Amino acid sequence: MTRDDIRNLMYDYFDGYLPGEESKRVQSFLEEYEDVAEEYRKFGNLLEKLKDLPTGIAVPPSLIDNISDELLSLSVAEYENEKQKKLREISENKEHRWEEKSKKKEKVKSEPKSKETIPAKKISKGSIKLALVLFTIVLAVTTGYFTYNYLNYNLPWNIKAIKGFFQIDNQFTHINELNINQTLTTLDTSVVRVNVPEVGWIDVQPNSSIVLRKGSNNDNEIFLAKGGILLNTQIDNPPLEIITRIATIEDLGGNFSVRIDDNGSVIVTMRNGLANLITRDKTMFLIQGYRCKILSNGAIGIPFHSQTSDVVVEEANLMTTSGITQTGIDKIINAAGYLDGITLWHLLKRVNDKNKKLEIFTKLDELFPKPPGVTQNGILTGNEEMMQLWHKEIEWQI
Amino acid sequence: MAETNVNYIKYLIGLSQRGRKNSFIELCELNLKPVYTLAARTLADKDITDEVVKEVFLSAWRNIKFVRDDISITAWLSSVAVFEIMEELRTRAKRKKNYPKSTESYKEIPYPVKTENEIEKQIIELPELERVILILHDIEGYNANEISGFFGDLTAEEVRRILKIARQTLTEHLTL
Fold first, then answer.
1. Chain A residues touching chain B at CB-CB below 8 Å
2. How distant is the alpha carbon of residue A198 from its chain centre?
3. Which of B1, B144, B150 is nearest to B81 (CA)?
């Protein structure tokens, strides 16, 4: 092998691309030719540096905004496609229904008019066998269902006092387990962590009381009788519902708190994630950073961002308890910033006065320009589809 | 990125898979630097890099539901980036075929990528094919067979030959 042969082969040798014999030959020649060995060493150094090569290339600061804008236009295009798809489905369904109707009419025409002409059915051995088979299947499915449910129970839930003492069913205890229908109560200064398998944990705050209603890998439910809880749950968790006397809070993964105040109102504060607030006649998604009060009569208040200005907090709270006022709207419009998009959106949905609606619309449009497919007229006339589309676009930008 | 809480990343991926764009944007921000660096080094053109990086993240958004638990999001995004970069190079190759006078070397690129790092500078100034193969092989860790598959019209042996030329050029030009 010449020097040039070795020079040519040393890269493949380094990468392990050479067969065994050839590899050994290159190795021995590398030991022999010092100048080639030096080249080989330099090349080794180069590869070492390339492994973790720091970059001196600057990312343009506007790029992330451009990506956001592209995503925004993409979502609008998706919305348009979805809309076209729905329209197609509706028209296809119409055609299908029309065909069915025509077929039925034809069938009625061809069917014998008198029932007397239809021969009476006789009970045969075959039908008894069929009934027995059906019965067995139903029995097997029912047994399977109950067995599956039983196997899915994740009970009892483990509990641990973080601070102070606690009671289970009004008895002080050292047992660190909570079972179905048991009530866990904390005292003035105690905090207890409840681990919900596969879901996350619930910290029961001082002077609070919860009842474990359901505990399985498919369904978890607690009743919050008084006080407050802090929750930390995973996004892909099995469902967890927090039931109160006036509302149900459906956990959709995140870090949030639920508290019942002295007036019996429920206050939900989202730090991260998403929750669904459900009352007798209303449902509302609460997004991260927002707080919302549900009054004891079941009315869902105006949500506001936890870090918004005092003016917005005060007016949103005031309008939640005493109803929407012109002054309140004006104050919120004047003080509103980017964090208040959802608050403005809710006001827009609830206000009836046309002029005020227009003022809120203008402010919201200034902060979060309405996406294509949403029109001023549509929003002012309360087009639900457009409202939802706008909400979606505000939500992901906050 | 490695320092960022793994659970938080998983949480963001979960939210993105459920259609929450703000969580996806957060994922983009966390991975923007490595994706941008890879695209800028291989494409060497600032404007084209910006466009390709945008396309990488849009493509990632369309396919986020396919992200598995056992693979890191950075590695997944890097493979999406390689796919988009190769798409761009193939389009560029077609353009060159139709317009033979189009950009060939770094000096002719209208908006070249700028860097302060000497090694990176030398890599970016390599001819296109050498540059791409060297980055994919020696920085991104793909082997010659995989790279041959990306190009379609190059054999693994040709890839190794071009790689050798790129390495020799760098070894000669750099003080190591």
1. 8, 11-12, 15, 17, 39, 42-43, 45-47, 49-51, 53-57, 59-60, 63-64, 66-68, 70-72, 74-75, 234-236, 253, 272-274, 395-398
2. 16
3. B150
> How many degrees, rounded to 5, is the angle at CA A145 between CA A140 and CA A150?
125
Which residue has tokens 């009381």? A209
Helix ranges (H only) for B44-155 are 46-63, 73-98, 118-124, 128-134, 144-151
Round to whole Å and give the CA distance between A96 and A335.
54
ipTM of the complex: 0.85
* Both tokens assigned to A298: 């079941």
CA atoms within 13 A on the CB side of A374: 25
Instruction: Report phi then psi at A54, rounded to 5.
Output: -70, 150
Integer Cα distance of A374 and A364 in angstroms? 13
C-alpha to C-alpha distance for A223 and A92, rounded to whole angstroms: 46
Token output for A139: 């029995």
**B117-149 as b/e, with b when 16 or more CB fall inside 10 Å?**
eebbbbbbebebbbbbbbbbbbbbebbbeebbe
> CA–CA separation, B126 vs B47, rounded Å?
19
Q: Which of B130, B128, B116, B121 is nearest to B167 (CA)?
A: B130
pLDDT of residue A173: 82
- A194 SS3 class: strand
Residue in B11, B114, B170 closest to A235 by CB: B11
Tokens of B27: 């994922």
Q: How far is A49 from chain B (nearest CA, A)?
A: 9
Q: How far is B117 from chain A (nearest CA, A)?
A: 5
A396's enclosing H/E stretch is helix A384-397
Splitting chain B (176 residues) into consecutive groups of 10 residues, what average pLDDT does each group show?
70 82 88 96 93 94 86 91 93 65 61 91 93 95 93 91 93 86
Cross-strand partners of A186: A166
**What torsion, rounded to 10 degrees, do the Cα atoms A338, A343, A344, A350 define?**
170
- The answer to whether the CB atoms of B61 and A39 lie below 8 A apart is no
- Report how far residue B161's alpha carbon sits from residue B71's, in angstroms, rounded to the nearest whole number: 32
Considering the entire predicted model, what is its pTM? 0.51
Q: What is the rounded CA–CA span in Å between residue B70 and residue A285?
A: 31
On whether the CB atoms of residues A161 and A139 are closer than 8 A, the answer is: no
Phi, psi of A49 (to 5 degrees): -70, -35
